[in-house]
Amino acid sequence: MFTGRTSVGLDVHARSVAAAAIDSVTGELFQAKLTPSHEHIKSWVQGLPGPVAVTYEAGPTGFDLCRALEAAGIRCQVAAPSKLQKPSGDRAKTDAKDAIHLARLLRLDEITAVRIPSVDQEAARDLVRAREDCRGDLMRARHRLSKLLLRHGIVYYGGAAWTGKHDAWLRHEAQPQLSSRATRLAFDSDYEAVLGVKARRDRLDAAIEVMAADSEFTAIVHRLGCLRGVSTLTGFALAVEIGDWHRFTGNTIGAFVGLVPSEHSSGQSRVQGSITKTGNTHVRRLLVEAAWHHRGRYVVGKTMRERWDLAPASARARGDEGNRRLHHRWVKFIDRRKKNTIANVAIARELAGWCCSLAVLEE
User: Fold this and answer.
1) pLDDT score of 64
2) 167 Cβ neighbours under 8 A, 6+ residues apart
3) Could you tell me the residue ranges of all domains in the chain?
4) pLDDT at 3 over 80
5) How distant, in Å, are the alpha carbons of 186, 246, 252 from that of 358?
């Protein structure tokens, strides 16, 4: 609840900050054009009639400004941009108007704040997202190389691609079939890019494994690992991206990651469409990929037992229950001849709930 005297809205950009403050006692409006310097912003805010509360939109400028204001004893909220109320008839947009609008919303308690991670949590999230970017780079580099060969009629039939056998085929059989020197140079460039990105991905994987073994997320990673499809890398990424799991329940976390159906209902009609795809894209992709592992017959193998040995007994029992339940759901979808991709999204939505129940499980 807003209990201060002055509400401040900041429209923050890389090189400028538009500031607006509303005094709830006198109704006076204060406006200023500030630099992105935290000291400059703090000095301006501290000169306003107190107590003061500040808000700005979450974006590429990050959370350092919020941390600096909180450290100075100034209440600050970072607003979720997708949840801001905006007048539908307003066709004029400026930084100053945006700042005033934020100040008014804060004064009316209409700000939906995002969670502010700690410095260590944000650093771990940066590492996880660097690995995610590297995964995308590797996929694109591999596509470029394979499509270069395909344009010249060179196709690999020896089994799964991007294995050791496939790599030997690329070097010893595919490249010699290219007749033009220019094309061979293009092949060398694309092949070198694949090797370079793969090496970078492996280094990031090793760094994440080390951090996952000794960090504030270690216990959660071990509990999440009791579910099929949730390896150390996946569990660590889920723990870092979600952060505080206690914000959700098994029913609400699916909506947070955009795995619930969209809906447009009015009166007696109810229309549901494809999933909303809102929220954290990285978490949604991880859950969808992990859900495919639950389609096959459930057998507790060597890898699963090794992960179970790291988790407490209650998490092992909960994980086993979740694995059986999710495989049973897959079997029912197959019997109903449900489209595999649709069924897998439904499994991913339920898997999110099982992950949440394990993450908040008491030791």
Assistant:
1) 93
2) none
3) 6-107, 119-215, 219-359
4) no
5) 49, 11, 15
pLDDT at res. 90: 77
Count the residues in the chain: 363
Query: Under a CB-based contact definition with an 8 Å cutoff, are residues 141 and 207 in contact?
Result: no
User: Rounded to two decimals, what is the model's pTM?
Assistant: 0.87
Q: What is the DSSP letter of 252?
A: T
For residues 194 and 149, what is the distance between their CA atoms, to the nearest angstrom?
Answer: 14
User: Among candidates 118, 99, 109, which has minimal Cα distance to 44?
Assistant: 99
Instruction: Please tell me the predicted confidence (pLDDT) of residue 362.
Output: 77
Q: Across the beta sheet with 17-23, what order do the strands follow?
A: 29-34, 17-23, 6-12, 52-57, 75-79
Compute the chain's Rg from CA coordinates: 26
Please answer whether residues 70 and 61 qualify as being in contact, where contact means their C-beta atoms are separated by less than 8 angstroms: no
- Strand positions, DSSP E, 203-351: 261-266, 269-275
Exposure b/e, 254-283, CB count within 10 A at least 16 = b? bbbbbbbeeeeeeeeeeeeeebbeebeebb
Mean pLDDT of the chain: 92
pLDDT score, position 1: 67
Question: CA–CA separation, 180 vs 219, rounded Å?
Answer: 56
Q: What residues pair up with 19 in beta bridges, in sequence order? A: 10, 32
User: What is the per-residue pLDDT across 218-264, written as a single tens digit (0 to 9) for each?
Assistant: 999 999 999 999 999 999 999 999 988 998 888 889 998 999 988 88
Nearest to 113 by CA among 49, 71, 72, 70: 70
Whether 93 shows a pLDDT value over 80: the answer reads yes
The topology (CATH level 3) of 6-107 is Nucleotidyltransferase; domain 5 (3.30.420)
* Predicted pLDDT at 363: 55
Please state, in angstroms and rounded to a whole number, the distance separating the CA atoms of residues 226 and 302. Answer: 13
pLDDT at 87: 78
